[in-house]
Specification:
It is a single chain. Helix content is 56%, strand content 8%. It is built from 16 helices and five strands. The strands form two sheets. The protein has a three-stranded parallel beta sheet. The chain has a two-stranded parallel sheet with strand order 4-5. The protein starts with a helix and ends with a helix. The protein binds iron/sulfur cluster. The site of iron/sulfur cluster has 14 residues, from α13, α14 and α15.
Length: 345
């Protein structure tokens, strides 16, 4: 409890001095292998944040189970694979704490406590529940776990006394419910868990091969560990500007998926080459895709090697996972002790 008081004081002080950085908490739902949408939407920011803050990054397998409850045998493999990807793309266990949600059961105790003080109406209004209710019924995921998902999210952040949650500008509203739940807990039990604030990060839209948002459910993704041959095939499948029918037609990069990927993977010089060549018919779409493939493959190949090393050396990967989960659990237990004391349990 003394630690918690000290930390809250530190978090307040951090607003005026960087000496005590507030804690950052973020997680990725475990639903399968990571794709490049995960990198640009989360991991790239995490890599930068780990040098500025004390960070807790989780692989949220219980959240994954709200939809993958019939295929749980895959979850353990996915989780290890995701951790190997995160480490091979630059996340550093010496700088941040990485944990697997189900290895820290304290999340669930706090979730239960928060469930009691969350009015049903708050959850019924959550857009992701309301808007996808019909879809959930059809996918057989119209369940209590999915409905109560935002309460578990609030517990995920509060269990580490997370003060900042990295989000893109379009996701700030999603954090509001977490803030309300924590605020209500603090009000009822006269406590001072940090009310997490959004930490605005860049969150560029990453299109899939078909131009829609990259997503596992659309099957239009490029994996972070995509092999060279498969990557080549996927780049060739990317949808180009449909008005550019013949080689001599000029094109508009803004109407082309290949250009969206150049903006993420190519340097300024290559980007200028694409814009100039496309709009004047100076290059063909094949040339453009070849350049993109080379640039993407350069980036992916470095991570591929490291990932293979990690997966081939189970001891190293297991000890990183075990140590991260242990360290996370120690902090989670401190929070629960504080919570129980406040509730006079
Ligand atoms: Fe797209 Fe490149 Fe072809 Fe232009 S040249 S339409 S940017 S693939």
């Amino acid at each position: 409890m003394d630690d918690l008081k000290k930390e809250n004081k530190e978090n307040k002080e951090s607003e005026v001095t960087p000496k005590y950085p507030p804690r950052v908490m973020s997680g990725i739902r475990v639903t399968g292998q990571l794709h490049i949408g995960h990198y640009f939407g989360a991991l790239k920011n995490w890599i930068q944040l780990q040098d500025q803050y004390s960070c807790y990054f989780g692989l949220m397998d219980w959240h994954g189970m709200t939809s993958a409850y019939k295929t749980t045998k895959e979850i353990k493999t996915w989780t290890r694979d995701m951790m190997a990807d995160m480490l091979s793309w630059g996340l550093d266990p010496k700088k941040s704490i990485f944990f697997i949600q189900s290895r820290v059961p304290e999340h669930l105790e706090l979730f239960m406590i928060f469930s009691n003080l969350t009015p049903m109406g708050w959850l019924e209004r959550v857009p992701t529940w309301k808007d996808s209710e019909e879809e959930n019924k059809q996918a057989d995921t119209h369940n209590l776990g999915r409905f109560a998902y935002p309460v578990l999210q609030a517990a995920d952040v509060a269990i580490y006394r997370g003060a900042l949650v990295p989000v893109g500008a379009d996701q700030v509203a999603h954090l509001e419910l977490t803030r309300e739940i924590v605020r209500r807990f603090n009000h009822i039990y006269k406590a001072n868990l940090p009310e997490p604030k959004p930490l605005l990060t860049e969150n560029p839209a990453v299109p899939g091969l078909d131009g829609r948002k990259m997503s596992k459910s659309y099957g239009n993704g490029i994996l972070l560990c995509e092999e060279e041959k498969e990557l080549r095939k996927k780049v060739n499948l990317m949808v180009t500007d449909s008005h550019r029918v013949r080689r001599e037609d000029s094109g508009n990069p803004e109407l082309c998926s290949v250009w969206s990927f150049h903006k993420l993977f190519s340097n300024k010089q290559d980007q200028e080459w694409v814009v100039q060549g496309c709009t004047t018919a100076g290059i063909g779409c094949g040339d453009c895709k070849n350049k993109l493939f080379t640039n993407m493959n350069d980036m992916l190949s470095r991570a591929r090697v490291r990932k293979k090393e990690l997966l081939n050396n189970s001891n190293e990967l297991d000890s990183i996972i075990d140590e991260g989960c242990e360290r996370a659990r120690v902090e989670a237990q401190k929070t629960l002790q504080f919570v129980r004391e406040k509730m006079k349990l």
